[in-house]
């Protein structure tokens, strides 16, 4: 009996390490971006039936695990409120240091509201630079204004 | 006596509201991006002497406040570890939901290391879209590999 | 110098107690629901210029406070992550006890996504009942599906 | 030996995924609302003997699990004080942003007291809307006044 | 300008110390139990107009403070989630050590539901005992069963 | 090997559910109050040898578990500092709302000191009431004055 | 108006620094141990009228402050749950590292119960030692057995 | 495979309960104080090879466990930052209530520095008293002055 | 199936204890500093294929574990935000007590920026001293200035 | 009236900004290292009378402030348990990532014990490097072995 989506995530990660699979290859087979597919494999998104079956084949998952992949998961991928891993912490630091700036500038441009984290996409790329290559990340989220009522 | 940079930030924010100043206009006068200038005005970055004097003129700050703007501040712009403001929370949510994905993909492309939050820039723009305009944010940070020793 | 929106909220609340003003009367003058107007007066929403001027007149606020009311505020109205006030705690308890239920049923009906807290409205009414009157609250939030990308 | 109600909840959830059961169908068989039945299946409410036996049949539970379903459980369905799942977080955000508003308006209408979370019901429905369907939730809780003594 | 009920509580406590007033005498004048009156003076309950005026006279409060006493306060009288004061901590310890026992026995007698903290009263008395006097506290709260729906 | 008292508590609770045992019957056999016996069965008190053997017979425990029941346990029966279960939370709320009141009144009657949670007893009873039965709880704790030294 | 005992503590500490007073001299005048008197001056114990007047004379306190010293204070002298000051942290560390040992040995000697922190005294002395002087602390607390009921 | 010192601690505690061993007898065999030996058995101190072998014989531990006893452990014996067990909590309370007093008196006697928790010993004894026996604890720690540099 | 790098770390630590291996010997075989190799063995750094195979041979790890050693791990080696172990706590204390000093002096020398914890090395040595040997630690991190943008 | 050492720290920091003083110059006048002097000025160390008077002259402090500088302060220079400032966070990250490594290597070299944070010194220097200058920090702390007793 598989008791949770986390158990499926652990199966996927273990299979990935054991078999030396790359996320970008999984993404190519599933036909979505590497960002969305990785998030889905790590238990944050819901696969369609077809997508789940491809993932099941790649990671050699049992049928019950494939069923779990089609269920909307309890999201949140970090073990602590403030992440300890340095790579992920730097993102938390950006939110902490620049959070008030982001808020001010979005409000200045759009008025009161938010940038959606649901109607949202992300693209991570290498940016070549002679002083050392850079990670370039493009985030795009629909602006949602507060409605009066 | 001005006891802290936070006191200067409060003066700037109060002057901005009272006088109806826009961050983008401040940025144009100071000659840096609106993102950096706003962060600096909100107490997260250090102004040069020339920049501090321009800011002092715009926000009608006393000399002591202009001196504070040139001192490296204790950074962190949020009152709680998990932000309560919905706009800023959405960013925290992105780190929480996509954090493990970002980590996996940067490691897949670059190996072990981090995306710098110091040698870093950010650009926030409106992306027009018939289904509702979007907020587009481009982040660029130098990749720093772990060194062995 | 008024340093923050919280200072304006304190002025409004003190004036309301001192003068015996009712939220529903403020709402009628401003021309929005009592729920939205109360939230805005308590520092959670942004007033238009016309609305702010009405509020300023009702609560006898200085011009600088009226300017603050038109600025998108840092939201969050509770002093602790788990609220201590019994009335508000009961709502937190509903989220705690029924949270997983709400999640399951929205996903069963709509698929993976969220109920917006931005494109959102709330209506609080007395429901007469011979066994003791009830508080009836209707919440309505747009369903936002996760997009694949 | 089944050591806790949580173990029974995990059995139910795993059976639901494995067999593709819908909460609304379970509710129809048990003869209560889908909201109450889902909460009960997720370990938040107490089944009667007859209800527990129906649930046991649907989810193919052993007798010991059926006995556990009739015991008042230790309630609380979220793993952290501030929920990380975006759908559930939006509800927490409503409590955080509108909590003081809800408090003010209930007190204005009813005086000092609370809206019960025990003598309470909830109804979740789809509200069709050309601009995008909405989730409509009706909450009804008895008003309980503080008694003097 | 009095900005909050806490400010009124501080005025009351300071006047009590300065003038050597006893809570039981305040209670006798107001005509409620010493338990309820003390809680109300400490900012946890709402006074009627008549009661507030008596309190105002005893503690020599300004009119604005008397108005605040008639407003339902944000409740919670402890500065930290786990109280540091030894007397109050012992009560927290009782909840911690005997909490599961209380839950089991109320459920065994009444079924699933709660003991109300709103329709609730408390009586604190000295119980003479040759081995050392005891504090006897009688708590009485209405049992509220969970309703199915 | 039984590694902890918690393991014995889980055995007792599982046996109670499986066999449909009532706490009051266990108390009658052991010859102490239902409050003390339930607390002891839930891992908060230490049984004598004779008491442990009766409990072992009722719950069909192995000898090693009977030994554990005679060892002073690490006490504390709640999984979080602020309890999530509504019944237990109401007690925490009483401490939070009335804590400062309890403190004031005990000090007014007895001087500085505490009400013991060790030389302590508790009695939980049904109080019949036409408006709905009530839970009556009598707490009795020795007053312990601070000594000067 | 003096609003709290903490305000009196701050007055005492400021006077002590300004006038170069020693705690042991205060203790000698008041006629109790230096440990108890220091705790009382720091807001943790209640002075008798005579003692408060001596303290008031030494620290040149106004009458209202002398009244506050005779009121049982809200105890707890540390700003955070885990103390940051190294001297005090070492004591917290002793509780953390040796806590389970202390528990085991007191139970082995006395059975289940506690060492009172109320019927308690403390004596801090210099212990001369050629390898470096030592701090010797003697704690004495009455053993309080749990009573069955 | 034994994965951690905690696993060895659980083996020791289980054997102690099962076999009815006393800490003072273990101490006598190992030839150190009961305080040190209990701390070491509970995973807080490092045994020498000879001491570990004696402990291994007493508690019937496998060779791998005896090896673990000779490794410096990750220390800290409490499951939460604020201990829930009443006996241990009283010690935490002493630190909380008397912490600032201890700090003041050690500084008054010794100057700035700390009382070591490493070059430290503890002795726990029964102190007979007609009003009820007392627990007497003597702590002795080397004073370590801050050095200037 | 090995589900995580932590599982591999536990295997390595258990093998080290069981076989009596020294970190410095592992470092010599792998050909990096003892500091880097220990961090890598404890799950904080990524091994190359050749390094992982040497580690696998020394600690007798299965192939799947050797694969895990080559994957960038989720970093963070402490079980709590404030470490309880005294040796590690002393480092946290240094950050707490001297953190603002370190910040001031690095800014005075270098301007605004940070000392990298990624382009970083550490060297731990014994420093002989007649008054007691000392631990000497040399940390070296690249200075990274904030860039304006 | 100056109520605390923190007030003196704020005076010093404000004077430093206002007058453009450098820490290294203060250190030269006081005759200790820049590391110790900065820590002392920031409220973490105790000045001698002579040192305090020099500091008082440099920062133009009143006599009462000079008296405060000679009192052992309550130490801890960070506003939150996990620091938000990026420069200081990197140090916390070193403790988090390398903490277990530091522990293992000090124990391997010295046995069980700690590196003192009291008998401790620190030296911060610029290390020139063609690939970008580095911050070199040398920490030296006496090793303190646990004593058996």
UniProtKB/TrEMBL annotation, chains A, B, C, D, E, F, G, H, I, J:
Cleavable signal peptide: none
Keyword Lyase: yes
Key words, A-Z: Lyase
Transmembrane domains' residue ranges: none
SUPFAM superfamilies in UniProt: Cyanase C-terminal domain (SSF55234), lambda repressor-like DNA-binding domains (SSF47413)
Domain of life of the organism encoding this protein: Bacteria
Enzyme class: lyase
Catalytic reactions on record: cyanate + hydrogencarbonate + 3 H(+) = NH4(+) + 2 CO2
UniProt xrefs under Pfam families: Cyanate_lyase, CYNS_N
InterPro entries for this protein: Cyanase, Cyanate_lyase_C, Cyanate_lyase_C_sf, CYNS_N, Lambda_DNA-bd_dom_sf
Any one GO MF annotation of this record: DNA binding
Domain Cyanate lyase C-terminal: 77-149
EC number: 4.2.1.104
Record-linked Gene3D superfamilies: Cyanate lyase, C-terminal domain (3.30.1160.10), lambda repressor-like DNA-binding domains (1.10.260.40)
Active-site residues, as the UniProt record annotates them: 90, 93, 116
Functional description taken from the UniProt entry: Catalyzes the reaction of cyanate with bicarbonate to produce ammonia and carbon dioxide.
Family membership noted in the UniProt record: Belongs to the cyanase family.
Record protein name field: Cyanate hydratase
Source organism of this protein record: Marinobacterium nitratireducens
């Amino acid at each position: 009996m598989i008791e949770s989506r986390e158990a499926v995530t652990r199966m996927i990660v273990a299979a990935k390490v054991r078999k030396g699979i790359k996320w970008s290859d999984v993404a190519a087979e599933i036909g979505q971006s590497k960002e969305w597919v990785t998030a889905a494999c790590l238990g944050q998104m819901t696969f369609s039936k077809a997508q789940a079956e491809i993932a099941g084949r790649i990671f050699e998952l049992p049928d019950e695990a494939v069923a779990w992949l089609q269920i909307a998961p309890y999201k949140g991928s970090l073990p602590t409120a403030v992440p300890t891993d340095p790579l992920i912490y730097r993102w938390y630091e950006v939110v902490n240091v620049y959070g008030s700036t982001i808020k001010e500038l979005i409000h200045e441009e759009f008025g009161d509201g938010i940038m959606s984290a649901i109607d949202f996409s992300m693209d991570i790329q290498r940016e070549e630079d002679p002083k050392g290559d850079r990670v370039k990340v493009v985030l795009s989220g629909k602006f949602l204004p507060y409605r009066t009522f």
